[in-house]
Every structure is written in C-alpha cells, then in structure tokens.
Fold each of these.
Amino acid sequence: MRKSKRTGAPIIAAAARAFAEHGFDVPMADGRRLREQVLAQLFAGRWKPQWDALLVDRRLPLEKRLTQFYAEYRGRVTRVEARLWTRAGLMGMHGPAFSRTLEKRILVPVARELRHEAGVALKRAVSKKEIELVQMLHGAIAFPHTRSHIFDMDVHGRLPELIAMMVRVWLRGAIAETRRLATRP
C-alpha cells in the first residue's frame, strides 16, 4: 500500500501540472479519477489543525494571529495550485461544501474574534455581512497569487510583508464596521 502511494504521487503531481496549464478537460488516461485526487489534495490537503487554535488564541493580538495564519496558509501557494484553484472555480468545482468549510474554519471564527476585538458582545450568530467583511481580507490576501500566477503581473514586495500590511489596513476598518453592524438588526 505504501509503495502505491509513492508511485501515485508523481502521477498526481504531473496531472496537477497538466490540469493547471491546460484545463481539466486535457485528455489523459483515468482523467476523472486523477482530477478528483488533485482537487481533494488542493482543497482539503493543505489545512493544518493548529490553525483552528491559532485563529482563536486570545493570548496573541488579533493582528498577529491573522498575519501569522495567512502567511502560513497562503505562503506556500505554487503557480500550479493557484492556476488549479482558478480553473476549478471557473468550472464550478469549489461547490457548497468548500464554502461551508471556508466559513466554518476561517470566516466565522475570524468574525467572532473581530467582535471581541471591537468590544462587541453579541450573542446572535455571525451575520452574512460579517462573513462578507472577513471575506474582504481573505480575498485580498489571495490576490497577489492571482496577479503573479494567473495574470503574470509583478507583485511588489514579499508575501509576508504584504500580508502584514493588508491585515493592518483591513483590521482598523473592520473593527469600525463590526461596531456599526452591531447596531443594526
């Protein structure tokens, strides 16, 4: 069993490169199974369990937690991964399950921590507007990879520095908006 996993890894990596550069319809033997394995690895294989704890560890300032999380989460995205991610999205392959996982693992916990940072003590569930507020940061942090790996544009600065800058800029506005949203029904 172990030998077949090692033998399969180079095949899956080659399939990922082909799908990233030429699309998921590229002809290859056993293409559907390979596509499913590539996407499973892309979507679920990157999550580190310690990130769940990091996002809610109030011993660290929220700015530091978000900067560290996103530097680790987005820091090792390759050209192949960025292109696969974009192609999968264009083909509707992310789906509701991915959206639910994104909300559960990242967006809702960050929204709750943002409430805490803003001094907002709401008991109600995180609202869709709060989810959208956190999604603004999440999307902004993904965009340097899109610029670099999809559009072949320059990215000016190292990713960890850019992430720290995005978190600093976003956090101040997000705290104010969280307070404003708390006054709305």
Amino acid sequence: MSKTLLRGELLLSKKILIVEDSFDLRELLGSGLASLGWDPILAESGRESLAKLECETPSIILMDKSLGDMNGFELAAVLKRHPVYKRIPILGTTAFPGCLVRQHCLAAGCDDFISKPFGFAALHRRLTQLVYGERSSTTAAAGL
C-alpha cells in the first residue's frame, strides 16, 4: 500500500483497482471515483488485473463477481494467497442479490461486499472504511 507523509501525518494512497468486465460501468466507476478523490486503475478481466498489479499497487480493489475470463471471487482467493497482494483489501460486488452471494464473497477472501446497484456515496464510504482499516458492519456481523 502506497503511503505518503504530509505535515507529519501518514496518508494512504487512494489508488483503486477497478475490475469490471462491463465497459460502461467500468468507465462510470472510474470517473465517478476519480471525482471523489480516488486514483482509478481500470481492468476488464482477471488476467488484466493481475498484469496491472505487477506495475502498480493500489490501496484497494473493487472487483465484480462476473468477469469474462474467470470468476471474480476465484480471483480474490488467488490474490489473498499472494505474499504481496494479500494485504490489499478487496470489495466484492455483483448484481446477484442474496446472503449466499455475500457469504461466498467473504469466504473467497473479499474483505467486504456491496450489492449492485449502489450509489457513489455508499461505495465511497465502504472503500474508505476498508482502506483506513475500519471494519464495516457487514464484515463485523459476519464475524470476520
């Protein structure tokens, strides 16, 4: 995780890897989060996200469950086994509703989950909680 010192305070980078196979949604998330102060890195597949991670280390990953080349939750499990990437929080997302999807997401290694559709305020709040080490109420309730 990239860190910066400003006036004696340690600040975490707001670099975010957005892994989303839908071009329109990926672009919308990138521009919307950029307007909220995030520095987006965009990837449309699991393979592309792994390639991007070799070049840049984000503070957090926003990952869709359904990707073109692999299941996003499978990718989360791979990342959580990696010696460097395992420290990067992952916020899983999908349009499939239900508590089973949430459980699969958390079991795969995602640190939290947000269901589509979501608003930018809720997404920003959840991302900030994960980057700054605050556990969300859903993660705490799940005992994780």
Amino acid sequence: MNTTLGQLMERNVLEVFGERDSGRRKSVIGELYTEDCTFFEAGDQIIGRDALNAKVGHILEEAPGFVFRLAGQAEVNHDHGRLRWHFGPNGAVPVVTGMDVAVFKQGRICSLYAFLDKAPTISGNTEDLQKQHEQR
C-alpha cells in the first residue's frame, strides 16, 4: 500500500464523511481533494469541493447519531485506491456497509466512487434507518 494515499483515503472516511461540522469538513476537503473533484454514487454525481461538502452534510443530517468507521485498511494500486467502511450507530452493528474507490491525481483525490454493499431497504428518513437497526 502506498501509505500516503492510503492514509488520505482513511482521513476521507473519518474527517470528511465523518465530520459533522461543515467548516472543519470544508477545510479537510480542501486538503484531500482536487478543486474539480467528482463524487459518484448510484444515480448521483457531484462536482466540486463545495458540492461535496453539501452532499456529505446532507448524508450526515439524514442519520443523526450515526458514525462512519473503517472496515480495514486502504489498498492502493498506483493511482487508484479502495477502502471498505461501515455506517451506523456508534458501537452497534452497521446499518450501511460499503466501499470507496478513489482515483488520485498529484497526491489528492480527483474522483471518488461509493459502492454500497448493504444499504437500508426502507428508503426515507432517519426514523426508518433507526427502525431497521432496532430490528436487527
């Protein structure tokens, strides 16, 4: 693993997607991402740092009390990396699991693709997520 790029991916999960304060998150996005970065998830494409910050803010607002956790170390192959993660209530079984695939450019993330392995079957609000978690 390229330690620097692997650490960058790990910081992304914990300090970008795991950061609820928009100002702090914006600062870290500025460190980790290229200016014209892209974020892809099923059915959605986000372009630029500010749009990424807003998207992450929306994800976190929809799931109060949920945290992102690493599910292993990042693996890097030249200018690509992958990292598995969990998302759910702190200390509990994750409600969502997934993997990020990053494309790096000059030591920063230029594209990030999020793949969901296990996602809530009930789409909607936080109450739906909490109900699913409680049923497990």
Amino acid sequence: MRSLFLRCTMMSEKYRSLKRLLTIGSLPLIFVFILTTSCRNDDEDERVPRIQTDITLNLNLPEYNILLNPGGWLYLTGGSRGIIVYRVNNDEFSAFDRHCTFNVPEACRVFVDENSGLTAGDTLCCGSIFEIITGNVVQGPAQFQLQPFQTQFNQNSDILRIFN
C-alpha cells in the first residue's frame, strides 16, 4: 500500500512539474498567438484600392491639348475615382488617383483648385488638400499622399502613357 501511495505521489509531482512547465513554457506562444491574431494593420483597410490602369494619350488630339504646355491639367476616367494628370514641365508629367486617402470607404473624390491649379482637395467629404505635382498632403486629416500612377512621355510623338 505504501509503495502505491509513493508511486501516486511521485506521479502527482511529475504531473504538477509537467503542468507548470507547459503553463510557463506556453506563455510566450500564447502571447504571440494573441498578438498575431488579434492585431491587424488598420492602414490596410484605409488604402485606396489599386485599379489596374494603362492609358495612352495622344496630346495632339484636341481633347488633350491642355497638356501640351506646362501647368496644364485634366481629369481622366480610370483608377478608383478618376485620375488627375498634370504637366510639370516639357518632359515630365504627374498622375494621381482622385480618391482621397482619408476615410477611404467614403470614396471621396478630390477636385483641382481652379484658382491655383496646383492643389486638389475635397473640403466637404474628406477635408484634405493635396499638391498635384507630388500628391503630398498640404492640409487636412489625410496622412497619405494621393495614389500615384507612373507616366512615360515620348516627346517626338507627344504620346503620354499613364500606368501602374
């Protein structure tokens, strides 16, 4: 009887040691599991959707003549909420999605300020203003620049390609 009692006591002690080891040893794993499953990057939900875009413009056509001179800009259909194209100088263009980067689910659209021709904003919906040469935030609650598109310009043929 005594040997049975000692064996049960020893097993009970081994069980407690194992239980303590599992409990203490599992804490880092439990912590990592909770951290990776409960935390998420809220910025991902607040990014403008990337819409595949590849547009080619012949600047010699009347509808695109405004882009023949530096400082000219126009709106195009495409991207998430439209595209602003701006001619920076003789061989450089900028192009940005018009979807405001603040409160993205609201799908606010920015408009070029007709007076300056250098900023685009939406004071009613997203409350932000952006520079149309760089897309950087000038004012407002937005923290991210407008989503850019790449541009490629052939000076010989006056063909502009806008793509991502």
